[in-house]
């Protein structure tokens, strides 16, 4: 019987994982502990004030999750002793030098013992503050790379990026690293100085924390749009990739670019997800009646991939590339658009069907009846929203002012906030609801072909096996409601 080469490669190995309390990292930790209990040590970098609060974060945000139910059933009363025999919590912060690890002895242990580094630390909010996003997604990647170069026997550095670092939206988008000159990306030092100046200006005018937050978000979107990106997330992730490439030297490095990460397809059980992610915000806004129209192309490719498949690809790229060193910087797209395209039309139809059968309930106990959504081109969407909502709102404001009606003013404030929220969401998602490109996954397919049959079964990431209609109806949408919304 064929043995799993990936499982064997994990035996007695130590892995440093950043972003360890995030969705993807939790899936990674669970998978490693489940398939290879003889892993030596998983070092989880956690932001916290001290070791006690860091351990509590792991207990509250990782161990307590239903994600670990399969492992808990296997080990029963000994689960916690098994978990803590394999996991070491490291207090740190990727935005700081030496990852903010204050314990000198521990740093030396890490530099000596770590075999693999998985950098999954990121903020994925499309409209994040620019200073926060740059610190985590760009400077964070830089700091982890510099830390990796001090590790004596590092086998592989795996950096988790996103397929949307590219500015292209049509045709075949290749697994290629884009140089700074190709993308016209500014230097991170320039951006950092720009942020510092803006923060200084705001502090000098005694701006409130809320005003500072809004200004930092606006600055991030302005800079991203100026250089051709739809949001600050993909912009700062692209700058992070450049730092990895610039600093890696001879270090073995892989960049993994997942597309839109969805709930688990199979492991450790179908439907697990954490938080409301990417397209799920649109789905849930539609379910509660907040969105009935949207700028979108029904034939647009919504490139989604289940979270467990992304983790399988992470482990496959890490372990397989160790025995196949490459002087080039390997890029792997992990998605579905080139092999099994999910179109926006199916998401729309499935959402309507699901919430017609399983409607949400209002606070007053009444069921929310969903209508078939209306889709427009970008220009006609704006015209429709102004005529259908904005103009009536302005009339309501005038009437409320003329009659000094606080009730009408409150109605105006409430509905205007909803209108602004929908418009901001539409702007953020337009690059994805009009995405006509396909992410080439040739490198990922070659990797899959190199795997033996046992590894292909244990670490599957072939999107061709996904039945999108069944996955959305029976797994993903119920999972988002159970774990993402209520978890």
Automatic annotation (TrEMBL):
Record-annotated Fatty acyl-CoA reductase C-terminal domain positions: 389-485
Residue ranges annotated for the Thioester reductase (TE) domain, each copy included: 17-314
One Pfam entry name: Sterile
Signal peptide bounds: none
Record carries keyword Transcription regulation: no
InterPro entries: FAR (IPR026055), FAR_C (IPR033640), FAR_NAD-bd (IPR013120), NAD(P)-bd_dom_sf (IPR036291)
Keywords attached to this entry: Lipid biosynthesis, Lipid metabolism, NADP, Oxidoreductase
A Gene Ontology BP annotation from the UniProt entry: long-chain fatty-acyl-CoA metabolic process
Main EC class the enzyme belongs to: oxidoreductase
Catalyzed reactions per annotation: a long-chain fatty acyl-CoA + 2 NADPH + 2 H(+) = a long-chain primary fatty alcohol + 2 NADP(+) + CoA
Listed EC numbers: 1.2.1.84
Function of the molecule: Catalyzes the reduction of fatty acyl-CoA to fatty alcohols.
Assigned protein family: Belongs to the fatty acyl-CoA reductase family.
UniProt protein name: Fatty acyl-CoA reductase
């Amino acid at each position: 019987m064929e043995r799993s080469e990936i499982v064997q490669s994990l035996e007695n190995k130590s892995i440093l994982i950043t972003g360890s309390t995030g969705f993807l990292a939790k899936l990674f930790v669970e998978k490693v502990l489940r398939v290879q209990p003889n892993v030596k040590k998983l070092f989880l970098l956690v932001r916290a004030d001290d070791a006690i609060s860091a351990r509590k974060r792991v207990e509250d945000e990782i161990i307590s999750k239903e994600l670990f139910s399969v492992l808990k059933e296997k080990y029963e009363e000994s689960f916690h002793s098994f978990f803590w025999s394999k996991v070491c919590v490291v207090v740190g912060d990727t935005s700081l030098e030496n990852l903010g690890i204050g314990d000198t002895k521990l740093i030396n242990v890490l530099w000596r013992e770590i075999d693999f580094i998985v950098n999954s630390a990121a903020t994925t909010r499309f409209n994040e503050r620019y200073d926060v996003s740059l610190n985590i997604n760009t400077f964070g990647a830089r700091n982890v790379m510099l830390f990796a170069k001090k590790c004596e026997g590092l086998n592989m550095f795996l950096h988790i990026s996103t397929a949307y670092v590219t500015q292209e939206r049509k045709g075949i988008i290749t697994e290629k690293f884009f140089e700074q000159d190709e993308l016209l990306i500014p230097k991170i030092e320039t951006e950092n100085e720009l942020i510092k100046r803006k923060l200084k200006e705001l502090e000098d005018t005694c701006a409130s924390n809320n005003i500072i937050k809004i200004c930092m978000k606006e600055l991030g979107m302005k800079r991203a749009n100026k250089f051709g990106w739809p949001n600050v997330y993909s912009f700062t992730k692209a700058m992070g990739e450049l730092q990895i490439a610039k600093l890696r030297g001879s270090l073995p490095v892989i960049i993994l670019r997942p597309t839109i990460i969805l709930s688990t397809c199979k492991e450790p059980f179908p439907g697990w997800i954490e938080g409301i992610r990417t397209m799920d915000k649109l789905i849930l806004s539609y379910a509660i009646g907040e969105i009935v129209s949207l700028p979108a192309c029904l034939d647009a490719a919504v490139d989604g991939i289940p979270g467990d498949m992304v983790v399988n690809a992470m482990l496959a790229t890490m372990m397989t590339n160790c025995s196949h060193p490459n002087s080039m910087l390997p890029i792997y797209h992990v998605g579905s658009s080139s092999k099994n395209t999910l179109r926006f039309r199916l998401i729309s139809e499935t959402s309507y069907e699901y919430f017609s059968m399983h409607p949400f309930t209002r606070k007053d106990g009444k069921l929310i009846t969903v209508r078939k959504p209306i889709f427009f081109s970008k220009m006609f969407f704006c015209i429709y929203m102004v005529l259908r909502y904005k103009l009536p709102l302005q009339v309501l404001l005038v009437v409320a002012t003329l009659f000094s009606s606080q009730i009408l003013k409150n109605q105006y404030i409430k509905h205007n906030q909803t209108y602004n929220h929908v418009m901001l969401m539409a702007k953020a998602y337009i690059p994805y609801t009009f995405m006509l490109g396909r992410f080439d996954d040739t490198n990922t397919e070659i990797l899959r072909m190199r795997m033996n049959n046992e590894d292909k079964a244990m670490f599957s990431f072939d999107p061709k096996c996904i039945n999108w209609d069944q996955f959305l109806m029976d797994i993903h949408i119920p999972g988002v409601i159970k774990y993402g919304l209520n978890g």
